[in-house]
């Protein structure tokens, strides 16, 4: 008898994955590919959409080859990086590279929207705070600089939607992604007609795809996609969710009050609320989940693992495994000998828990007695402190449930536990994003009829990290210094940004 599996696809920013799960939640096989980001001198961060699709198709081919004829593929689920601007023409072809969520070219436009009230209109309708990598901001920016290119566009398709288009030919999205354009999250009844007009983007309404619930059918694998990927023609493909939201499903967080953290290319701290009226922070973002009036309130700092990748390269540690690098960092004591690292290295600046498109990374507190190991550990601490600040802003309570590649680091989990004084709970098995996509795919294909049951079916065990009282006082002092030095240097960031752009 064939083993039944469901495949989850996770279209991340720097890596894409395809993971086959059995119906006990175990990973049968998986494949991943790295995908590049193209950075420009004016804050651009772009990705070739065909390159991302081909990387996913190659992953699927690896997975289907490994599964062979002994497995029955029930469905395919989708998730991917959110935000940015992903545009296709009438033929379903990209009109240009996607400008992804890190793109900072529209920083001045985002600032002007904050000044003229447009940002307030976006926030009131969509629950989203304006930042340079948001689709409406980028659409306004590129409509001025590339009007002919934008004129050829027919549909906005976010990363996961672009992958579905290639798999099924369907132009669809879900409520979480629609919240990043013009969905009115107060009612979740559909796109707002007033907001595009307020933003001077009336023509953008023609670009908006049909919205379906995240657990609804999203089409079936076409003959062409079957030949490219090895998936059986006719395999059901789900709708899915934006990556930060679907990860909660993979972690079993589906009830109001459930919260979780992610540390990947970007950070994430979020909690599910009964309605947008329960929102905790004015600086947060809100996504409609499509489950009644429920919303996900979250803060997504742009201070993720690229900071660790950068210091790894800068120190010439590329040939060392992350385990070895972490052991090196542990030779420095908690608090990094007084060094504070501000992890604001994204070209797009920072968007949570504060907004500043000119935000820049830097070290403070260094002296000639500082060692390379102190500097390395300070990066781990700075990235973690950014998440702690978001936890406090959203007033998360209880244990901290974590996921994402950055939390595979025991050191990051320990710093988080020690700084907050709370227990950190990490899923034993990785790939929570792909797992969440697979959970929703089981519903889309009719294999399961209830979200909680489907989530439990693919659930896995967890690790626990308890806080060490001996380190808490040191980390709280470091954390307070982190916030103070950031506030002190922030007025100089615009000048630093201008100097960097001139270079």
Description:
By secondary structure, the protein is an alpha+beta fold. The protein has a 7-stranded mixed β-sheet with strand order 17-18-16-15-21-22-23, sandwiched between helices. Strands 3-2-1-6-14 form a 5-stranded mixed β-sheet. Strands 4-5-8 form a 3-stranded antiparallel β-sheet. Strand 21 (400-403), helix 14 (410-420) and strand 22 (424-427) form a beta-alpha-beta unit. It is globular, with a radius of gyration of 22 Å. The mean pLDDT is 94.
Attribute tags:
alpha+beta; globular; seven-stranded mixed beta sheet; 19% strand
Topology:
Layout: E1 3-11, E2 15-22, E3 27-34, E4 38-39, E5 45-47, H1 49-67, E6 71-80, E7 87-88, E8 98-99, H2 107-116, H3 118-126, H4 135-145, H5 147-151, E9 155-156, H6 159-168, E10 172-173, H7 175-178, H8 194-198, E11 210-211, E12 217-220, H9 223-229, E13 236-238, E14 241-242, H10 243-250, E15 259-263, E16 267-273, E17 285-288, E18 295-299, H11 306-314, H12 322-330, E19 340-342, E20 362-364, H13 372-394, E21 400-403, H14 410-420, E22 424-427, H15 432-444, H16 451-457, E23 462-465, H17 469-489, H18 493-502
Parallel strand pairs: 1-6, 6-14, 10-11, 15-21, 21-22
Antiparallel strand pairs: 1-2, 2-3, 4-5, 5-8, 7-9, 12-13, 15-16, 16-18, 17-18, 19-20, 22-23
Task: Compose a concise summary of this entry.
With 503 residues, the chain is an alpha+beta fold.
